[in-house]
Amino acid sequence: MTKAIDTINYTHVFGHRHLLGIAELSPHDIEYLLERADKAVSVSRQVEKKKMVLRGRTQINLFFEPSTRTQASFELAGKRLGADVMNMSVASSSVKKGETLVDTAITLNAMQPDLLVVRHHSAGAAELLAQKLVGCSVINAGDGAHEHPTQALLDALTIKRNKGRVARLTVAICGDVLHSRVARSNIILLNALGARVRLIAPSTLLPIGVERLGVEVFNSMEEGLKDCDVVMMLRVQRERMTGALIPSAREYFRFYGLDSERLKYAKEDAIVMHPGPMNRGVEISSEVADGPQSVIEEQVEMGVALRMAVIETLIETNDRLDNEKKHKEEQK
Amino acid sequence: MASTLIKNAHLVDPSQGIDGKASLLIENGKIADIHLGGDAITAPDGSQIIDAKGNYVFPGLVDARVHTGEPGSEHRETIASASAAAASGGVTSFIMMPDTNPIIDEVSLVDYVRRAARDNALVNVYPSAAVTKGFEGKELTEFGLLQEAGAVMLTDGHNSFKNPLTLRRALTYARDFGLVISAETQDQDLAANGVMNEGLTATHLGLSGIPREAEIIALERDLRIAALSKGNYHAAKLSTSTSAEAIARYKDDDLNITAGVSINSLTLNENDIGRYRTFLRLSPPLRTEDDRLSMIEALKNGTLDIIVSSHDPHDVDTKRHPFAEAASGAVGMETLLAAALRLHHNDQVPLSRIIEALSTKPAKIFGLDAGTLKKGAKADLCIVDIDAPWVCREAELKSRSKNTPFEGELFSGKVLQTLVEGNTIHTEKA
Q1: Residues A230, A213: contact at Cβ < 8 Å?
Q2: CATH no. for residue B109?
Q3: What is the ipTM of this complex?
Q4: Nearest to B140 among A203, A243, A255 (CB)
Q5: Quick check: is B11 in a domain?
Q6: Does the reported pTM lie above 0.80?
Q7: Which residues of A touch B232 (CB under 8 A)?
């Protein structure tokens, strides 16, 4: 069994082999991961960044959608923990040759990975792999418009480090909620930790029934940003702005873009977040993105620390649950 | 600023529930005072006095569907000539359709219409803008920016929506801006090459027909999408009894669904086409007498909210053709009120309901500063002798195009004087 790197005093016992979504986590699970991640930040800031707790373990990053930053973040997190990290991207994989996702899972099983990080364009893909893989933890790095749990966790970590807490803060999530897994994960997480969540978007970019997810919905930035502690911008895909859901990029920026004038509606000390990559001049202006209220760069740093905490926790939990199972079988 | 007193008037203002003798004081272009009853208000010295001599005063008419030819077909109608036609018909505000050349689907074009209207028009001209770029039914136009530029309504002109997804997105997006999407409802595939109402009359004339179902199917489909998107949907011109029934079913407190009817569908039927009179080739086509009577009933009970002239000027180049080859459409702003008064003279619809449908209600649906003579409102009004007989002669029309379906018809009811912001812009020759 892998030893825990830090002496952790948490009474909470994390019980999940996989991280497929925020929806399956309890508030205690979330707090546990955030506290562990907070400690991991210091590791990343040392000159010697490498720990060897996951020596001999294999992490496979399986990305069916290109994502430079998320993949790099997971790769760095795994390497800093001492794991062997392998990247498989769709362009070079057999999926392009017609292999089904389940066949991919069987092939991967044969390689005996300890951790699979998967991003896929279809909702539920990570869950399907988690069901088919044996003895391997799965982290959902984004499945369609469903969930992107590590992004929501790193956002919460960033908020916590800037504001000291998440509870009772007013957080506005602005933009393309309809297609955003980041928004879905964040809505669940922020609600679980007691924040007040607002969504600001044109109605064409809001999913049906969203108001029943425990959020306040606004169609106006000026109204929605009022008294917000955190302004979370979402990326709008350019292909959405050719008249189907949004008439044009300039109209989007005029009504939903975050510039310094609009940011004044939020609290004076509000922080501005963006999961990246940004469309400058579409959803956010450069003066805000690079301005004093922006914590966008910090989000990237928190991403590595948070992912280190998640990877370590999942592998520990997997080991522990396997041992418990073995123990029970021996007793029989 | 000079003030004007209108005395001895019979004021009908549905926005205030007034139907009786009154005098109105206008100051600085606005209604300063209303006095009900026979005695006049004492006007300040130097006031202009207009003696209405017992004639009616209505809030200026608001016509929510007016086509012009500017830009692109100025020989048919300019914004200036349309506004002159409006003034002589008692219309003080109209919404201009975007089906010009080029189509009004860009901020700069809305701006052009506003400037042209400001410089040349006697009446208030409100631009509308296309829902989809180039009326192609695919990409949404910049609703928010168009509204900021001055567009008050969105419509794809004579084009009905083909793709329900486009309509859903348009209604959903327009809702955020409080904009109304006004749509014609005729399934083009089913209407095919029809030119008039399908039925025995068409068969006698040897013309291909447009079945009533072409309108009903498109309308019912649109209404379901409107209910789904909870958008502001306006069915622009209905013509069948079944359409009115569909609207009545969907008119719910939660849904912003409204409907209009062309004056032609209220006062003419398919038999008026006679011997291939192309000025009566209209869209929607003139239907049966039963349909016309049910349209009147639906107007009376409020199922149909508003009456439009559907003013659509065409010159000889597009009208002097065999019926099936002629363009559809007719001018109508100058005959709108007189034709609508037929419903009053025939005891079919109360006068106050007619004025509501011609003025107060369209202003309300499209959010225009018009349709009322409340204290403080703009003094846009018309003075009307509702019994004065006259014969419609195309030579006397102010519109550049003379394609009236009422040529030679007798009317009772004439606009004597039209005022916009207190200024007289039209006076009938005695």
Answers
A1: no
A2: 3.20.20.140
A3: 0.86
A4: A243
A5: no
A6: yes
A7: none
